[in-house]
Backbone:
């Protein structure tokens, strides 16, 4: 990697090892990033993009704060993020598959769900936990490690190192290529890597960068540093993008996790990776921060529109049920929650709403007759039902 030897934001160190895939030794250079700066000067044009992103983020947060139960829209945003962020790492699942899998009882999810969907579910669970923590505690390495452990749980990357700073060298690039052909080689494992990770976590809370650098720019910088350090054997991209949302929440820019940046980044995956690498090779933060701000701005804007459309659909469906079934309280409860739980079964409804199995069966049957729900699967037992229009809005 000769282009990294002259990097203004780090240095290279020689490393050597044995690659069992090709039965050969390797000698290459790994990149060790310098600590993040406490202040940064950016061109006015970039600050304008950052300011626009901040304004769109404010509009999104304001819209979510007006909802009596924000969880109805945060659940959608988190699942969109789960699908998008996993796709960036090569794990693909449809939103419908994820929502359908989450209907199953927890004990059945381990055996009755395809591995790719289960891995996306891991992210959704980790994110749900993290969003509950962040209002009470800052981002720490311990927190980040627990998120990584949950994300890789039950996958090939699960094992003794899950949740811990890696003790082995990793390489970024095609799995079938030689180490010498890797796109990027992060720092070697050891005490220095752990110390750099600790300083990264400290930087997130340090008053100097908080006072000198605008939040969205800091989130972009922290994300670059995390991806460059690559602290874990797997899951770094997903954890790093989750940390970006957590930063925005911890500093009060978002009161609810209604932003999902990964779908936008997924559609520009090559550009995303090129921008991160370009910071390393040039030391110029501006293009990367501008790119990230565009991601925040675009997803905040589309997120705001999605919330408005989902709430309009919720009101429309509720009016339909109230008009046709004025005394059907359970049917209305199910309808009101469809924008967050658009796929359900009778047993799933019973777990969430109580009542008897027959009462939930009757309520769902009435909603099918009204066209509010329709069968999603043909299973003879515990059939799934869904509202197709919710997914049309989510995927728009």
Residues:
């Amino acid at each position: 990697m000769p282009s990294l030897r002259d990097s203004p934001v780090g240095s290279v160190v020689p490393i050597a090892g044995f690659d069992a895939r090709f039965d050969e030794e390797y000698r290459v250079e790994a990149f060790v990033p310098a600590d993040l700066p406490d202040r940064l000067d950016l061109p006015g044009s970039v600050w304008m993009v950052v300011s626009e992103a901040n304004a769109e983020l404010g509009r999104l947060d304001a819209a979510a704060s007006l909802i009596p139960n924000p969880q109805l829209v945060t659940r959608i945003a988190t699942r969109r993020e789960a699908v998008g962020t996993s796709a960036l790492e090569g794990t693909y699942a449809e939103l419908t598959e994820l929502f359908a899998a989450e209907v199953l009882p927890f004990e059945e999810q381990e055996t009755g769900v395809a591995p790719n969907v289960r891995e996306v579910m891991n992210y959704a669970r980790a994110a749900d936990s993290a969003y509950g923590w962040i209002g009470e505690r800052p981002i720490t390495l311990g927190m980040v490690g627990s998120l990584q452990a949950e994300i890789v749980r039950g996958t090939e990357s699960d094992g003794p190192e899950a949740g811990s700073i890696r003790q082995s060298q990793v390489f970024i690039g095609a799995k079938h290529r030689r180490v010498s052909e890797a796109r990027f080689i992060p720092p070697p494992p050891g005490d220095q890597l752990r110390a750099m990770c600790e300083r990264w976590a400290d930087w997130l809370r340090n008053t100097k960068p908080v006072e000198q650098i605008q939040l969205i720019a800091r989130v972009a910088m922290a994300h670059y540093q995390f991806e460059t350090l690559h602290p874990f054997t797997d899951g770094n991209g997903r954890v790093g993008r989750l940390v970006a949302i957590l930063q925005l929440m911890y500093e009060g820019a978002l009161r609810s996790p209604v932003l999902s940046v990964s779908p936008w980044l997924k559609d520009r995956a090559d550009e995303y990776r090129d921008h991160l690498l370009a910071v390393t090779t040039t030391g110029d933060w501006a293009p990367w921060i501008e790119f990230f701000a565009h991601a925040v701005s675009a997803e905040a804007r589309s997120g705001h529109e999605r919330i408005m459309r989902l709430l309009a659909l919720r009101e429309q469906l509720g009016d339909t049920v109230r008009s046709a079934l004025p005394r059907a309280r359970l049917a209305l409860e199910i309808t009101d929650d469809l924008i967050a739980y658009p796929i359900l079964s009778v047993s799933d409804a019973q777990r969430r709403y109580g009542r008897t199995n027959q009462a939930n069966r009757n309520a769902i049957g009435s909603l099918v007759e009204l066209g509010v729900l329709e069968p999603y699967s043909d299973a003879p037992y515990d059939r799934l039902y869904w509202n197709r229009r919710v997914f049309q809005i989510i995927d728009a």
In short: Residues 325-394 form a domain with the Arc Repressor Mutant, subunit A fold (CATH 1.10.10.10). The chain has a mean pLDDT of 93. The beta strands are 10-19, 24-33, 343-344, 374-375, 385-386.
